[in-house]
Amino acid sequence: VFMTPHITHDVIEHIAPREVIMQAWNAVVAGLQYCTQDTARARWARQSWFGKHMESSPELLARLTLLQNFVNSTKPLTIAFDPLANIPTAIAYTYSRRLDDPLRVPAIYLTRKFCTAQTNDRVKYLMKNRNNNGVQIIALAHELSHLVIGTNRKTGNYSAEKYAHEAKNLRDKDPQYALHNADNYGFCIEMCS
């Protein structure tokens, strides 16, 4: 049994049918279940996005377990549409401090690009699911990492987000940064889905 997020009516009306969003969400949940296992494929995914020395680090496994525990919990999560989102390149976003506020329900906000984002050829080879579903899985997992484990918090040494190729390069250049970067989780979870 795992969490079923509340998908607001405006998401269904403006973004995609509930089934499309749930397909991506279920892939995130499955990816998290697999990512935390001690199998060759899971270790390879973790090594691909966090580096050879981090793939079995207690800190990485603890963070992935926190994500897994969140999606396996009964805590509320809302997936909503933000028609006023003025972030030209964003597919989705969240407020990473939301879990710290007991009066607010955590939420992931989708923009109109959630179902129309195309993967360019340079990024496609980084993905397992080389279609829009892969982009959606990465987007939801990326935002979930902000929300649950505080990736790229605005305070600290790892606040600047690195995307796609820059994220992949972190595994070799700065694995500690990769541990705090949302796209590394997004791609790793997508790879395990």
The low-pLDDT segments are none
Task: Count the beta strands.
Answer: 4
Secondary-structure class: alpha/beta
> Strand order, biggest sheet?
1-2-4-3
Number of helices: 9
Strand content: 5-15%
Described by strand count, sense and barrel closure, the largest sheet is: 4 strands, mixed
- Backbone shape: globular
Order of helices and strands: EHHHHEEEHHHHH
Taking all Cα atoms into account, the compactness measure Rg is 15 Å
Share of helix, binned: 40-55%
Mean pLDDT comes to: 88
Ends: how far apart? 17 Å
Describe the protein.
By secondary structure, the protein is α/β, with parallel strands linked by helices. It is built from 9 helices and 4 strands. It has a 4-stranded mixed beta sheet. Helix 2 packs antiparallel against helix 4 (58-71), helix 2 (18-35) crosses helix 9 and helix 3 packs antiparallel against helix 9. The longest helix has 18 residues, at 18-35. The relative contact order is 0.19.
Q: Which key features would you list for this structure?
A:
single chain, 50% helix, alpha/beta, four-stranded mixed sheet, 193 residues
